[in-house]
From TrEMBL:
<feature type="domain" description="Periplasmic binding protein">
    <location>
        <begin position="20"/>
        <end position="266"/>
    </location>
</feature>
<keyword id="KW-0732">Signal</keyword>
<dbReference type="InterPro" id="IPR028082">
    <property type="entry name" value="Peripla_BP_I"/>
</dbReference>
<dbReference type="InterPro" id="IPR025997">
    <property type="entry name" value="SBP_2_dom"/>
</dbReference>
<protein>
    <submittedName>
        <fullName>ABC transporter substrate-binding protein</fullName>
    </submittedName>
</protein>
<dbReference type="Pfam" id="PF13407">
    <property type="entry name" value="Peripla_BP_4"/>
</dbReference>
<comment type="similarity">
    <text>Belongs to the bacterial solute-binding protein 2 family.</text>
</comment>
Length: 300
């Protein structure tokens, strides 16, 4: 059915920890790097029998994968929820099956008590705040169009909250979602250029949508980075190259490479050891003074 499902198994009957990992999709450069990191760390050599399922950005696929993991009797479930809500039932089923959950990247909003043992991800709200502070300082009169990520996802909700609180709602001329993909970001930007001709700055919730926006801006005969400034989140190599080329103005990093931290959490959780309720992956930020060496040294 086109899903990227794979089982990296050692021999069954081994002492390996059986892990079901439900990844939300393959929508962006960030996600691809995150998946590579997860697969590089959760290996048989590292004591893990991994079943990895890509939900293609559809919550129903993800719920199905989680139910399959329960049926398979995995030892630990790890998952990155595409949106925050709608998980109550399946999380309760996981809890009833007494399978510990390691929540990865995005967050959940649920009525289920103690739905996961530990969460590892970035501080999305801080990322939005950092982006907003750059805008406030460098383009205080900007007329801002906000290119939102997947609506209802932790990364969209929190980046928007952090950003809007700093720049002030009155400076935002419009918002639309590009679902964290380059193609949808481009389409949303084409429509926005018609709807908000006075816009001077785009805040894109990820690099891929910002890269789509560049195409739309250039097609409209304007200069990205000058006529319309672009601020994004992620810091994938293409995004940083656009920054160096003067088409992006500021990039707040969101580091996707934390497979080893997930591995460590899974091992501890499986052994019944204490783990922190949350682990925040540390980010930095870049402006146009970024060097080519930094970009070339980027792993993703
Ligand atoms: O920023 C974006 C991806 O959840 C942090 O999801 C992640 C976001 C990331 O599609 O590129």
């Amino acid at each position: 059915d086109g899903d990227d499902n794979s089982t990296d198994g050692g021999d069954s009957g081994s002492e390996n920890i059986k892990v079901g990992f439900s990844q939300l999709g393959a929508e962006s450069g960030w996600r691809t790097a995150n998946t590579e990191s997860v697969k590089a760390s959760l290996t048989a050599e590292n004591g893990i029998d991994l079943t990895f399922v890509d939900a293609q950005q559809k919550q129903e696929n993800q719920i199905k994968a989680l139910r399959d993991f329960i049926d398979q009797g995995v030892d630990v479930i790890a998952f990155s929820p595409v949106v925050e809500t709608g998980w109550d039932e399946v999380l309760q089923e996981i809890k009833d099956a007494e399978i510990p959950v390691v929540l990865v990247d995005r967050t959940v909003d649920t009525t289920v008590e103690d739905p996961y043992v530990t969460w590892i991800g970035a501080d999305f709200k801080q990322e939005g705040t950092t982006a907003g502070e750059w805008v406030k300082e460098n383009a205080p009169d900007a007329k801002i169009f906000e290119l939102q990520g997947t609506l209802g996802s932790g990364a969209q909700v929190d980046r928007e909250e952090g950003f809007d609180a700093v720049v002030g709602a009155e400076n935002i001329v419009g918002k639309a979602s590009g679902n964290f993909t380059r193609a949808e970001g481009k389409a949303a930007m084409e429509a926005a250029l018609q709807a908000y001709p006075d816009m001077t700055l785009v805040f894109a919730h990820n690099d891929d949508m910002g890269l789509g926006a560049i195409e739309a801006i250039e097609a409209a005969g304007k200069v990205p980075g000058k006529d319309i400034q672009i601020v994004t989140v992620d810091g994938v190599r293409d995004g940083l190259q656009a920054l160096k080329d003067g088409k992006f103005n500021y990039v707040v990093e969101c580091n996707p490479v934390f497979g080893d931290q997930i591995l460590d959490a899974i091992k501890k959780v499986d052994a019944g050891e204490d783990v922190p309720k949350e682990t925040i992956v540390v980010d930095q930020a870049f402006d146009q003074t970024i060097t080519q060496e930094t970009i070339d040294g980027r792993k993703y």
